[in-house]
């Protein structure tokens, strides 16, 4: 098997709430292979978002390391972090976080502008991604003129723009109805089938059930790490 695309080793994070330390993560270790569709579940406050923010270079851990594509991102300096984040990570948020004054096309384009992709190539890639998301007719609309599901598809296109090693999605279906949720999960699943690696934090068991592996967090630790039943079934079929 090839080298895991993500390696998390003995990761810990302690926040100070005034003078009181809060152990948001304690000794978290796991590997993720390229193309895995992984969900992270667990009660509120169990450390899911903290884990994503360490992997996404949004914050520094107290201890341990994260390697993405063989690069130890936890050692990156303040000046290196934005570039690594741009090149390696795509973010999808619960509230979409699109720029309201820009069209769908411009929202995808701007992610590549920061990565200094030439204008022509940016436009080509943005159109290709938005078409892939079924938004061909919606490209010139602003977020306020799009439904929640459409906005989330724009943000998935934006997350894909710079060919990230990993997409990190924190409650990507938290704001949409069940039909839209199923469509968004279907899109994420199809991206994984083409080799994209995706980590999704969710409270929704229906979302977790459609991923290939579920990590359950409890009190900042991994309580369980299992392939989903469907995948186990497939694995069992393959063995027979
Ligand atoms: N910036 C911070 N400063 C202090 N404590 C924090 C900070 N961020 C998170 N925490 C604490 O760390 C713990 C883990 O929080 P985290 O946001 O990772 O949980 P979560 O699993 O994402 O919860 P939810 O499901 O509610 O989003 C909680 O006890 C929280 O209060
Ligand atoms: Mg959270």
| Mean pLDDT across all amino acids | 93
Instruction: Summarize the biggest pleated sheet.
Output: 6 strands, mixed
Assign the CATH architecture. 3-Layer(aba) Sandwich
**CATH fold category name:** Rossmann fold
Rg for CA atoms: 18 Å
CATH superfamily: P-loop containing nucleotide triphosphate hydrolases
- Determine the N-to-C terminus distance: 21 Å
Question: How would you describe the overall organization of this protein?
Answer:
This protein is of the alpha/beta class. It contains 8 helices and 10 strands. 36% of the residues lie in helices and 28% in strands. The strands form 2 sheets. The protein has a 6-stranded mixed sheet. α3 packs across α4 (119-132) and α3 (104-114) packs parallel to α5. Magnesium ion (MG) binds at residues 48-49.
Summarize the structure.
The protein is built from eight helices and ten strands. By secondary structure, the chain is of the alpha/beta class. The C terminus is likely disordered.
Furnish the topology, listing elements before pairings.
Layout lengths: L5 E12 L2 E13 L4 E5 L6 H8 L7 E6 L2 E2 L8 H8 E5 L10 H11 L4 H14 L15 H13 L5 E5 L7 H16 L3 E5 L3 H5 L3 E6 L2 E7 L1 H11 L1
Parallel strand pairs: 3-8, 3-9, 6-7, 7-8
Antiparallel strand pairs: 1-2, 1-4, 4-5, 9-10
List keywords for this structure.
alpha/beta; Rossmann fold; binds adenosine-5'-triphosphate; binds magnesium ion; disordered C terminus; single chain; 8 helices; 240 residues
